Amino acid sequence: MKNTPFPPLLDRLVRCSLMGLPLMLGMPSADAQTPALTNAATPITRPIRLIVPYVPGGLTDTLSRIAGPHIAEEFGQQVVIDNRGGGNSTIGTQLMARATPDGHTIGMIDAAFLINPSLLSRVPYETPKDFTPIGLIAIAPLLLVVHPSVPVKSVKELVGLAKAQPGKLVYGSAGNGSAIHLAGEQLRSAAGIDIVHIPYKGGGQAIGDVLGGQITMLFIVQGTAKPHVAAGRLRALAHTGAKRSRAMPEALTFAEAGFPTVEAATINGLVGPAGLPKDFVQRVNTRVSRAMNTCEQVERLIDFGAEVTTNTPEQFAVWIRTEMVKWAKAVKDSGARVDNN
User: Fold this and answer.
1) What DSSP state is assigned to residue 275?
2) For 318-341, how does the pLDDT look when each residue is reduced to its tens digit (9 = 90+)?
3) Which residues, 6+ apart, have CB-to-CB distance to 294 below 8 Å?
4) Contact 219, 205 (CB under 8 A)
5) For residues 17 and 20, what is the distance between their CA atoms, to the nearest angstrom?
């Protein structure tokens, strides 16, 4: 057992408080963000559908299942998780956009929501015009892992192997336009290597294939990778965060490994179709923000390799537009383009 100045339970609470506090500095409390809502005008009379644009598995699906019960308690209605993978996440996201804006359909987005408009040749909706932002939930850096049969122990060695075997190393992703995909494109561009991308319908399928050795490597959220790395089933090389991770402090950052421009991270937040009632949006935002900023959830997400990062619907709307501009530049600089006609 490692030395700690506190008894185990107290140590956990202190660490949780210290870890969670910086994420809320400068942010008003949920009560301060939203006026008290009494006699809300929007009636929620049947189960709420929460669309996940991926197959089950992965952080986007997990966060939906964490948030769902809290939304259900807020409105006294069941929340049904509807996994709609495929189409580079556009199939499920299009369903969000086309839903009736009455509060009975919302969705969980990830970085593909921000990246797809500049990466894909065709997107069947207009971002962000066709959506109502509800709130950001979490941000998670990505860890690059390789199958243990790959004879490398560092990013430098991986780059050397890729240059010696152009077009032979394969990396998977949760789909074209995902942060996992763009992280691979950033590495390809920064290192000047020829690696092959295979998109999957979700992160869970890609993880299965890297574990089985069908693909060489994968960018993955650290919490998912950690048990596999500890068991020797995967080898960790570096992660995309700006500083060492709380989940895996032994892992180098890409900046430390010599590639600071490899920085793609996955994000998750809630949106709905354009025109959602404001009182409904505020109630969902307030309830989910309160739930995610508890000590228990802050600790739980750190175990996943993610950090709770919440904001107001108005802040989320500005954030989406700013991030779309950033990723459009990143896509252009990487040279990545996907023809999905």
Assistant:
1) T
2) 999 999 998 898 888 777 777 776
3) none
4) no
5) 5
> For residue 99, is pLDDT > 90?
yes
For the chain, where are the alpha helices, taking DSSP H only? Answer: 8-24, 30-33, 59-75, 90-98, 112-119, 155-164, 179-191, 203-211, 222-230, 278-292, 295-304, 313-334
Residue 324 makes CB contacts below 8 A (sequence gap 6+) with 114, 117, 118, 127, 128
Residue 111 DSSP class: T
In the 8-state DSSP scheme, what is residue 261?
T
44-136+267-334 CATH pick, 3.40.50.1220, 3.40.190.150, 3.30.2420.10, 1.10.357.10: 3.40.190.150
Structural tokens at position 69: 């019960």
Question: What is the secondary structure of 202-256 as a DSSP string?
Answer: SHHHHHHHHHTTSSSEEEEEHHHHHHHHHTTSSEEEEE-SSS--SS-TTSPBTTT
Mean pLDDT on 28-46: 54
Q: Mean pLDDT score of the chain, rounded to an integer?
A: 86
Write the CB contacts of 38 (distance below 8 Å, at least 6 apart in sequence).
none
Q: Where are the domains of the chain?
A: 44-136+267-334, 141-239
Antiparallel, parallel or unpaired: β 131-146 and 265-273: antiparallel
The tokens describing 178, both together, are 């995902």
Instruction: State the fold for domain 141-239.
Output: D-Maltodextrin-Binding Protein; domain 2 (3.40.190)
Domains 44-136+267-334 and 141-239 in one fold: yes
